[in-house]
Amino acid sequence: MSTAHAEPAPIDAAGLSEKQVQILEYLRANAADRTYFKSRLIADDLDLSAKEVGANMSAVVDATHDIDVEKWGYSSGTTWMVTDERES
Q: What confidence score (pLDDT) does residue 3 get?
C-alpha cells in the first residue's frame, strides 16, 4: 500500500553542524509516519549517542518551521514529540 508524503523542505544548513542536519533530515523524513521519537532510537538509526542527539536537539528545534519538535517526556530516555506542520 502506498501513501503520499509531502516532499521534505530544503534544509537551510546555515549555522547547523553536520550532526544537527542529520538529525533534522531524519525527523523530517519520519515525522509523517511517527509522532514520538526517543533520543536513543534516533541515535541508533544515525550512529550517534543519545547524548549527542539531546545536545543537538535545541539547534534543530530552532532551525525548522515545517516540523514542530517538543520535549515530551523522560522515561528511560528523552522522548520528543514531532509534528509535521506540512500535514496540517
A: 42
